[in-house]
Write a structure and sequence with these properties.
Layout (H helix, E strand, L loop, with lengths): L4 H20 L9 H10 L5 H8 L6 H17 L3 H10 L1 H4 L5 H12 L2 H17 L4 H16 L7 H17 L5 H14 L2 H14 L7 H50 L5 H10 L2 E4 L2 E4 L2
Antiparallel strand pairs: 1-2
Helix pairs in contact: 1-3, 1-4, 2-4, 3-4, 5-7, 7-8, 8-9, 9-10, 9-11, 10-11, 11-12, 11-13, 12-13
Length: 298
């Protein structure tokens, strides 16, 4: 039996109205609870995308409700890695919501999605602007730390110690502001420690993230995959560190050997290693003379 169109539209309006009511109860965007309340609302609603679009585009609704819907919509697009749609939404609504402090975080995410190093650096700067406006919102502070450490991981020459100090201060502040309840903040901390060469501490931090991650969350599998990838990254960084240390040791030994050879050449050119002196020196370095031929000792 065909369902009459008016009844279906009435149901759509009722569902949309309930979602708008829930979004109207979110705290102000500058409140540290804002992103978590929006996430909780999304957890309870199945397939809210069409309703969120409708709420954002309803000018009669209060601006704060429309912005909360916009935030929720971008959160959904980011979770599903729909990067092109995310960037398009940010551009489309720049004129309407561009003055919101959170919009700097949206710009940062759009820049990071482009993937190149220069864009990643831009994402750090946009995130820094958001922190300047919302220094006590842990999600905003953590975003700066997460994007900054990702940028440092991409540098060929290694991460400057001064930058690592600043990133660690930000991630520690985000953990403190959130009372240590958000798992992925500890994963970011582990990445910072790995760049410092503190590999065991990095593994402990990632293990904390795995333990803290709520198994009932829709993000659980995605986050768990991310944490396991970070574990592998820590192992690779440790192996690279060992390889570099071995290379440095060999380079030092080669330099010392070359220095000794130059010294021998200078002594020989001055005639200081002739006759018995040469024999004595070769004996000291493990070489004997037999009918004019040099043989290594066994």
């Amino acid at each position: 039996m065909r369902i009459p169109e008016p009844r279906r539209s009435a149901e759509d309006r009722r569902r949309r109205s309930l979602l708008a009511q829930a979004l109207s109860k979110t705290p102000p965007a500058r409140d540290a609870r804002f992103p978590h309340v929006v996430r909780d609302i999304l957890e309870k609603v199945d397939d809210p995308e069409a309703d969120l679009h409708a709420i954002v585009d309803t000018p009669e609704l209060p601006r704060r409700v429309r912005f909360a819907a916009f935030y929720a919509l971008l959160l959904r697009l980011r979770r599903e890695e729909r990067h092109g749609e995310y960037a398009a939404m940010v551009r489309r609504y720049e004129d309407q919501f561009g003055t919101e402090p959170y919009f700097h975080t949206f710009r940062a995410i759009s820049a990071r999605m482009r993937g190149d190093l220069a864009s990643l650096r831009s994402s750090v700067e946009f995130s820094r602007q958001a922190v300047d406006l919302m220094p006590d919102v842990p999600a905003v502070v953590h975003q700066l730390a997460a994007f900054w450490v990702e940028y440092l991981e991409r540098l060929d020459k290694g991460a400057p110690a001064q930058d690592l100090d600043q990133v660690e201060r930000h991630v520690d502040r985000a953990i403190a502001l959130s009372q240590g309840k958000l798992a992925h903040y500890f994963e970011t901390k582990g990445r910072v420690l790995a760049l410092r060469g503190e590999f065991e501490a990095a593994r402990v931090s990632v293990a904390q993230a795995i333990e803290l991650e709520p198994r009932s969350s829709r993000d659980y599998l995605r986050r768990l995959t991310q944490y396991q990838a970070t574990r592998v990254r820590v192992d690779l960084l440790e192996e690279r560190s060992r390889w570099f240390r071995a290379q440095d040791r060999l380079r030092k030994e080669l330099t010392e050997f070359k220095t000794q050879q130059l010294q021998l050449q200078r002594l020989n050119s001055r005639g200081l290693l002739g006759g018995s002196g040469l024999v004595d020196h070769r004996r000291r370095v493990g070489v004997t003379i037999d009918d004019g031929r040099s043989m290594p000792e066994v």
